[in-house]
Amino acid sequence: MKLIAVFFLLFLSFDISAFTMGDAINIAGRQRMLSQRITQAYILRGIQPSAERHKKVFSRSLQEFKRNHEKLSNFQGAEKIETQLIKVQKEWEKFEKIALQPTSKESATKLFERSDELLSETHAYVVKLQQLAPHNSAELINIAGRQRMLSQRIVKNYAAKLWEISQDNASSGLQQDLSEYSNRLNQLLESPLNTPEITHNLRKAQDHLNYASRGFEGEMKISEKRQIQVITGTTDLMLRNMNVITQLYAKLLDSNTTL
Description:
Elements: H1 2-12, H2 21-47, H3 52-73, H4 82-99, H5 105-132, H6 137-162, H7 167-189, H8 196-216, H9 224-257
Helix pairs in contact: 2-3, 2-5, 2-6, 2-9, 3-4, 4-5, 5-6, 6-7, 6-9, 7-8, 8-9
């Protein structure tokens, strides 16, 4: 419970009064992640209806998506790509309508499919923001932010597979996400722009991935309940760590922009 509370407060501390392009790419990237985090929490509520953790993750993630969208809507540096943000809003409305329905396999299947549509529109907005940025470190913010999304899409596919929702897509998606996360991590590690702090956190991300992979590969001889705890806990660590890395890249962009 303490981990969730700290995790939530970390993102409430964002200062809207100093909103920069680096912040915008960071926050827009979180929208990609939230589309997957909301979905995985919704499915896990179906698997473990009495677990308070999934309910809290679900409700807090819904609230954060709305707050983030408002921040992005008020960002004057992205007026040229306002039409893409409108597309995100329209897709969000469809997604939220399903997400607010009582949990069932039928609604979970619909949300699983709709989450990819929302992800597509939010990703398009991040790419357009990156193209507006004046420094190539913007690409690193995008990639690191995508790693946050992958950490949650990994759990979404794992949970869908576990609850027998879109099993073929969930199984193939899980393997693809694990592979992409690893490849993108290597790409970030090779960046000449990395600071020692960034490199240290990227190494931690590698350790988290290696540990989580053991659960997906069946190496852990533990109960289903315990496996869910291990996988969600480890992927949350992956998410938190990649959030730190994304913020460090955002600061790198802003510092280069003001030189």
